[in-house]
């Protein structure tokens, strides 16, 4: 037993030593290696763990607000094209505006749960944080994102019709589109969305220029929008706005969607990005 513990400690030292050797050199002309990206992600994740609860709560709340700009544009697109093109075409056209909120959140460095899911899991996999601390941090980020989403939802369903840029039918249609699937379908869809968001976080660590980062965000979130994959934080705004403005969206619809989408997003980010990327690196360490 003691020998096994010593072997584990030595293995961890080897991993940490190997990661140290892969610190970013700052050479923008050289493609980042797997170890460099992993090291950057680990350091960023540890920095979030070291932040004050007040910062985390406020940054998460801000992200929940800012992601609402995607919803604002989606409702506007639906209302503008309604009656001019087929409804399924309108939902595909929303792909072009869906990334807007993500660009604001990610480049503005606010804390978005689905972007942070895999990032915050890495210090746990690297034995630098406990699962308990991870769950507490996730809970705070999720709460901030949800509350921000509730506030922006209430604001948008008032200001949209007041400005004449969209009507409440658009809100109802978008919310119904998001919740029209079975929980099993939403779960798998959310896993795929969480997987993509984890990959986005991973790839952003290797992107140096702002233009490159914007293009990555557009590509990944565009895939989610075009394929109607379920994102728990954008979906929170979409479905909660429908709950506030339409009798067709019930509290049960909202609770089932949000709980299943959060679970799926978490699985996608942790299992298919953090765990696989980390284990791939560990297997390369003697």
Automatic annotation (TrEMBL):
This is Formate/nitrite transporter family protein. Pfam families: Form_Nir_trans. GO terms for cellular component: plasma membrane. It is found in: Membrane. The chain crosses the membrane at residues 55-81, 93-113, 134-161, 181-202, 214-234, 254-276. InterPro entries: Aquaporin-like, For/NO2_transpt. It is a multi-pass membrane protein. Its main location: membrane. It comes from Gillisia hiemivivida. Residues 1-32 are annotated as: Disordered. The keyword NADP does not apply. GO terms for molecular function: formate transmembrane transporter activity. Keywords: Membrane, Transmembrane, Transmembrane helix.
